Amino acid sequence: MTSSPPLQFAPGQFYRTRDGRKAIVYAVYPESDSTKYPIHGAVWNSGGVPSASIWQSDGRCYSLDHPSDLIAPWTDPIEFDVTVAPPWAEHVSWSHSGYWEMTSDLYYNGNNSIAIPPNWSPKNADKSKTYRIDRSSGKLVAL
Fold it and tell me: Is the model's pTM score more than 0.85?
């Protein structure tokens, strides 16, 4: 099993915490014996307010796993109102014709398909991916 390369932290970049919150790094200071926490930044709380935080050079708050550990680059969530999808729609993808569409079949075997008007199209979505409509969470999930 191969391990992922360690994250490279940079000022002005956003990261995801272990518990899924958004964090920003303000500064990364040179590591030294006197600097146990060289990464300085902030983590957004559930009310949308950033709170100052510091991390070790590997993105950890402490030596054990902690909810505020930095674990991955931040990706903005896809904005899409799944309630506009007809009951038969199961997937959303970028069509070869250049627009977002909903389909009933992942492989589009001639089954139901409908174009999504631009105002209702997914925002922040990757056009190279297909998404499953997850009605229970109200989100699009990349396949």
Answer: no
